[in-house]
Write a structure and sequence with these properties.
Number of helices: 4
Helix content: 40-55%
Number of domains: 1
Strand order of the largest sheet: 1-2
Mean pLDDT: 80
Distance between the termini: 26 Å
Low-confidence stretches: none
Number of strands: 2
Strand content: 5-15%
Length: about 110
């Protein structure tokens, strides 16, 4: 179960990047990601905010969301996200809300 529902995402986190239809999928993936981190005890609000922020990173990392360049003549398109870049961004984002320093993550 996701740490934050869509109401929390829009009302408390003030998120607007993810649609209500897409949010449950990305919130679940973000919650699973957070479950795999070994972080010091934290409050529910911080965990919910970390869930929302990580869900936005995952949503934005979809290949169709990360166009690095696009050419019109002889149509060409390049994507910019790598798995390593996404992983780095996720850990940095989660660390804004969770105490990851104390457990050696950052």
């Amino acid at each position: 179960m996701a740490y934050a529902d869509y109401t929390f995402y829009t009302a408390d986190f003030h998120g607007n990047k993810i649609s209500e239809t897409d949010y449950p999928y990305f919130a679940e993936r973000a919650s699973e990601y957070l479950d795999n981190l070994s972080f010091a005890e934290t409050d529910e609000i911080s965990l919910a905010k970390a869930c929302c922020a990580c869900a936005e990173i995952m949503y934005s990392a979809q290949p169709d969301k990360q166009i690095a360049s696009e050419k019109v003549g002889d149509y060409s398109i390049s994507y910019s996200t790598t798995q390593t870049a996404v992983a780095d961004e996720l850990i940095k984002t989660a660390s804004r809300y969770l105490n990851l320093r104390s457990v050696g993550w950052i």
